[in-house]
Specification:
The complex is a heterodimer of chains A (229) and B (82).
Chain A (H helix, E strand, L loop, with lengths): L3 E5 L3 H12 L3 E6 L2 H7 L5 E4 L5 H4 L9 E4 L5 H13 L5 E4 L3 H9 L4 E3 L1 H14 L3 E6 L4 E7 L9 H4 L1 H5 L1 E13 L5 E9 L12 E7 H8 L2
Parallel strand pairs in A: 1-2, 1-4, 2-3, 4-5, 5-6
Antiparallel strand pairs in A: 7-8, 8-11, 9-10, 9-11
Chain B lengths: L1 H13 L3 H14 L4 H13 L3 H14 L4 H12 L1
The chains are: A alpha/beta (229), B mainly alpha (82).
Chain lengths: 229, 82
């Protein structure tokens, strides 16, 4: 069954969300109070409405509880964003994901109990900064306050060594849970190409190769220590 | 000479000896800056070794010369998606 989402606010971010969700096969309902914006996405979405979502009566015309998630991406008017979230919450929306434009906006929605708040500029700035400081850091997932799962470019000093030799777990207290590797081959046109291979749960005999991407699970500090070698 | 070195670099890539392949390809590229075959293999190696920006520049250069270079087009698309 197709997952159903409602995107409220068709700015640049909302529009991109709509595009990706529809590309991924989701059923999307788009809402904005600006008719032009609604018309601009009409051809991609399942349904679209011109609506002021701070108007409770108007919002009630949507079957809010049917959506897997409602994405509130209004940032041009914080008041509208807050009111929309409050009304949606009261109407029993299953999941509200709200985009904020600054810290104050974040704090207010947080106090209102909106659990999924996204601050894309902040997240992107953090990612870029971390990547500049540690160029091999590709992705980071905070598993808890203490633990992270990081996608890291392997270091040349690990190359051509077996995992058992490197002793990541006993020496550094981290686990390599997967390795992404680019495998070169020659295609039917005689050209060298590369294909991605994923090794899940690599054994001790697995040798690290140049260009490997390691998925490292461990305490934040320990993972950082390993890659600051 | 150029062909021999390029063949050697290709073999090094296939045996996943990317750093040695890169050394050879960089020298070849310096002396043959418009050779798209050298450019393509150097881009591959740079992509594998996370020199992403340089790989993108090389793939784009190839496509300027050969707009329908299938493999370069595919790699550039993939690298931009990542």
């Amino acid at each position: 069954m197709k997952r159903e989402f409602c995107v409220i606010g068709i700015g640049r971010f909302g529009r991109l969300l709509i595009e990706y969700l529809t590309k991924l096969g989701a059923k999307v309902v788009a809402v904005d109070k600006n008719e032009e914006k609604v018309l601009s996405v009409q051809e991609f979405v399942f349904e679209s409405y011109v609506m002021d979502t701070t108007n409770e009566k108007a919002l009630k015309t949507l079957d809010i509880k049917d959506f897997d998630a409602i994405l509130v991406t209004i940032t041009s008017n914080i008041e509208s964003s807050i009111l929309t979230c409050v009304i949606l919450k009261e109407m029993g929306a299953r999941r509200i994901i709200a985009r904020v434009r600054d810290e104050l906006h974040f704090k207010i929605l947080d106090k209102l109990g909106i659990s999924n708040i996204i601050f894309p500029e902040k997240a992107m700035a953090e990612k870029i900064a971390k990547n500049l400081v540690s160029p091999g850091l590709l992705e980071i997932i905070e598993v808890s306050d203490k633990y992270v799962l990081e996608e890291r470019a392997s270091l040349p000093i690990f190359s051509n060594k077996k995992l058992s030799e490197l002793e990541f777990r006993s020496k550094f207290g981290v686990n390599i849970i997967a390795i992404k590797r680019k495998i070169p081959e020659v295609n039917e046109r005689g050209k060298t190409i590369i294909k991605d291979e994923i090794i899940i749960g690599p054994g001790g005999d697995e040798e690290i190769k140049d260009g490997d991407i390691l998925f490292v699970l461990g305490e934040k500090e320990k993972v950082e220590n390993l890659f600051s070698k | 000479m150029k062909e021999d070195l390029l063949d050697q670099a290709k073999l090094l890539i296939l045996s996943q000896n990317y750093r040695k392949a890169k050394e050879i390809l960089e020298k070849l590229y310096k002396n043959n800056p418009s050779d798209t075959e050298i450019m393509y293999h150097l881009a591959l190696v740079k992509e594998i070794l996370y020199e992403r920006e340089e790989a993108i520049i090389l793939y784009k250069k190839i496509l300027e010369v050969i707009p329908d270079h299938k493999e370069a087009k595919e790699r550039l698309q993939k690298i931009m998606e990542e």
